[in-house]
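ENTRY TYPE: paired fold submission
RECORD: A
CONTENT: sequence, then structure tokens
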Amino acid sequence: MKVTAEPRSDQWNADDFTGGPRTFTIAGVRKGTAEQKYDIDLVEGEGRAWRPPLGMLRVLMSAWGDEADVWKGRRVTLFKDATVRFGKDVPGGIRISHLSHIGNKPLDVPITIARGTRRTYTVQPLPDAGASGQQIISDKVKADTAKAIAENNVAAYLEYLAANSAPPHIIDYVNTQAGATQ
């Protein structure tokens, strides 16, 4: 049994990445709250939104433009950066390490890290497809698919994926795996 320590929350927090980085597929973007301008829904996001701070939004906009619909189906690797400051405190935060759809070279984006202080932030390319040309299926989607099959709950899982704008290759994967077990 895997032991986890998860806070009850509707958003991803830096502490969720203590075990290491995770790669997600963007399902969509919607208006956020006064605290964070946008909520980014993630296919593998377990129903929780990612609420990127302004600096990470600027990285996304530099990479993919400012039309949220373009972001759907693209992938992002997030990690906990223990050096992120909030005022005088250093609580850590979520940063982007890799993005799909940026070509084969790292992307450098100037961002503000403190009032009056700007630094170049570098994001590495995340392959758009596997070496064989097939789309990549995350370990989370594989595990959730296996669980849905084991619990005879594939239809509900497919509904969840469709409601969260899962890319076609993920829907195809679930259907293929479910068909293989019948």
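RECORD: B
CONTENT: sequence, then structure tokens
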Amino acid sequence: MPPEAMAVAAAIQLFLGFFAYYSQIKMNDFVGYRTPRAMVNEETWLYANKTFGKYSIIAGTINVLFGLWGRTVSYGHHQQAILWIGNLLLLVAGVGISIYLTEKKLFEKFGD
């Protein structure tokens, strides 16, 4: 997978982060940050989406920059594979860390 594809995946993460942060979408079963702790009531829902959006924007920005940087680097097939794996791991880690931090903030603000 070329670095451009990873930059596009990261840009999608960035877009979804902005959507979660700025939208005031009502609690539903299809769109948004949906965990049991986030779906307790409308207040936790809005807080969780805004918090997750903030962390996703940060992670998405880092991933986009990493993907664009990878495009400027001269590399062979082995380096390209390492760069692709690194970018993929960074993307997955960004989502995982965003979820962890959002759940932590929900617990701190609303308890169990």
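NOTES ON RECORD B: DSSP finds three helices and no strands in the chain. The first helix runs from residue 3 to 22.
STATUS: closed
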